[in-house]
Write a structure and sequence with these properties.
The two termini are about 20 Å apart. The protein is of the alpha/beta class. The protein has helices at about 70-85, 110-120, 140-155, 170-175, 185-195, 215-220, 240-245, 260-270, 280-285, 295-300, and strands spanning about 1-10, 15-20, 25-30, 40-45, 95-100, 130-135, 160-165, 205-210, 230-235, 275. Helix content is about 30%, strand content about 20%. It has a ten-stranded mixed sheet with strand order 1-2-3-4-5-6-7-8-9-10, with helices on one face.
Length: about 325
């Protein structure tokens, strides 16, 4: 793996673009969460596929799908970031989170589970917290069953983070936002109820919430026990795909103190609700969810108008 471009800020996030050969590029991110120092929390966000076949209309990575990364290609991303800061492989960080979420749906790549299993044997990493975010594609039962076993055997008592990205409680809207065959809410809940054990972190139901998108507490309560699930709401980030799809964010990323009636209703229904708004500078770096720098560089190279309020750290050099 050869790093071909990178940019960002040490105190927020850095995006790396790497060439793995055969004309294929991969992106990964390392980030911190100000004001929390790196020794308290350090996050790597790695890619699991070359592109993504799902094609969500808020995500710039859903083009030119070229297959799965191997276990070693997954580890190459982790190893570059780790050795850059901790050459001996000892990671003295209280919470070292690896999110398998930069590019690609993790359930399509069984090598993700190999990596989760082997990280503790490759590094001295007592604070390791694996994080899997999935849209719950149908036909990946073997992945989810092995994930369940792996969590039970190695990552119980709050040492694993599972997130289902569902984006709307309306089935038709959800189908438009996640245009693949996927588990119903009943199927997600049936699996999540098996997955969750006492002392585990609650399972996250994630909504990158677009303006006008239904999010109804009653529809969630029908399937998801607030004792086992929490709700995380994030902005729709400034991506090319979101703009082309006419999707604007319900959440104002520039006003973290703003209150929202939809979120109050979820809280009234008993859910823990996290309004997750990171540093807006990450939109300019291109490190936020749904952003994909390679899409930006291709677009600007063709002379098209750059995305509004995003990717400003990156200039195409020809």
């Amino acid at each position: 793996m050869r790093i071909v471009e990178s940019t960002g800020r040490e105190d927020i996030a850095t995006v790396y673009i790497a060439d793995v050969g055969d004309g294929r590029l991969v992106e990964f991110v390392e980030s911190v969460q100000p004001p929390v120092p790196r020794e308290k929390k350090w996050v790597l966000i790695i890619s699991v596929l070359f592109g993504c076949p799902v094609g969500c209309p808020i995500c710039d990575a859903g083009q030119q799908y070229q297959g799965k990364l191997s276990k070693e290609q997954l580890f190459d991303q982790i190893d570059f970031a780790v050795r850059r800061r901790f050459d001996d492989g000892a990671i003295p960080v209280e919470k070292f989170k690896i999110q398998f979420a930069r590019m690609g749906e993790p359930a399509f790549n069984p090598a993700v589970l190999d990596v989760i299993e082997e990280v503790p044997s490759r590094y001295d990493v007592p604070g390791f917290l694996p994080s899997v975010s999935t849209v719950a594609p149908r036909g990946c039962d073997a992945f989810f069953e092995r994930l369940l076993t792996l969590k039970r055997e190695r990552y119980g008592r709050g040492r694993f983070q599972l997130q289902f990205s569902i984006h709307s409680t309306d089935p038709d809207v959800r189908d438009r936002l996640i245009p693949i065959d996927k588990w119903s809410f009943a199927e997600i809940a049936a699996y999540g109820d098996r997955f969750f054990e006492p002392e585990d972190r609650k399972i996250t139901l994630n909504f990158a919430l677009a303006e006008g998108t239904p999010i109804e507490a009653d529809a969630l309560r029908e399937h998801f026990d607030p004792g086992r699930y929490l709700v995380k709401v994030t902005p729709v980030n400034p991506t090319y795909r979101a703009a082309a799809s006419g999707l604007t964010s319900y959440v104002d990323a520039h006003d973290p103190a703003k209150e929202y009636d939809a979120l109050k209703a979820l809280e009234a229904a008993g859910y823990e609700v996290i309004l997750s708004i990171g540093e807006t500078e990450e939109n300019h770096i291109g490190s936020n969810c749904g952003q994909y720098v390679s899409r930006h560089l291709r677009t600007t190279a063709s002379g098209e108008t750059p995305a509004h309020d995003g990717y400003t750290y990156w200039k195409h050099e020809g």
